[in-house]
Amino acid sequence: MPKRARVALKVNNLASSVTFYVDSLGCQLVEGQPDADMAVVLDPYGDLLLLAGPEAKDVKNHLDETCVIYKPGDTLDLSEQEENLDARLAALTARGLTDIHQEQTAEGDRKLTIKDPSNYTITYIQRVQRSPEETRALYARGGDDLEAVLAGLTEADLDLTRAPDEWSIRQIVHHLAEVDAMFLMIFESALAQPGITFIRNTYDQAHWAETLAYKERTIEPSLALIKATRQHIARLLQHIPDHWDHFVLLKFASDEGEGYKMTVGQQLSEMNWHQAEHCEEINETRRIHGR
After folding, report:
1. I need a labelling partner for 204 at 20 to 30 A (CA). Which of 5, 180, 182, 230 fits?
2. 101-104 and 75-77: which strand pairing?
3. Is the CATH number of domain 7-126 3.40.1010.10?
4. pLDDT tens-digit profile of 236-269?
């Protein structure tokens, strides 16, 4: 675990947010900084969250080098790797939460949704269990699936957003390509040298989006990159029959300990889920604007 939080939530009222995350979600208060209008809580899985009230200054300086800062209205996924929604629902209900929305996604995943005091959407997702064959096939066709979601959109449509300050369709596509490129070497390291420690570079998502001109670039090269990366990995998997359980120990430079184990199977599932979430955002944007 890093010494500093990697996730910060800008909240409307610090006291009510601390109460909600501790009493309702089961987090532990690690450090309260009322003079700075900030607090650090530890979620049930051991990850630190920084809650920053309206008067908090220089939030980024209180975070790990690899960080993301959320704002009210954003969605935060607090799922475990192997989420059990029935147990989760029982635990949340026992803590007094009643306004819990349940749904099933287009991919078959089950989802619980809760609103926090600052209008964050807190989600817990129990992913549908797919066979290795289904998982590999879904990953391999990811580029085609993304193109299908984008079908019929004009160049101007790509700049539509779900809401102010949300990413445009264009930015989402570039982000998906960037993530595929980032994880290419993790895949290959697990396949070529199972058990190796893979140290990830720091990653500031907002900085990358700004510096790499997500808003301005055409999407065709990014779509081509997604297709090429996935076809490349799919071909590699055909040559390594026992690839599913190959793994790396994944960590950032600031992490203590040996890192956490990520298998090829888990990585394929994560990439599928990540793209599905962003494709749903694109579909939502299209629904909002009638495209």
Report:
1. 230
2. unpaired
3. no
4. 999 999 999 999 999 887 777 788 899 999 999 9
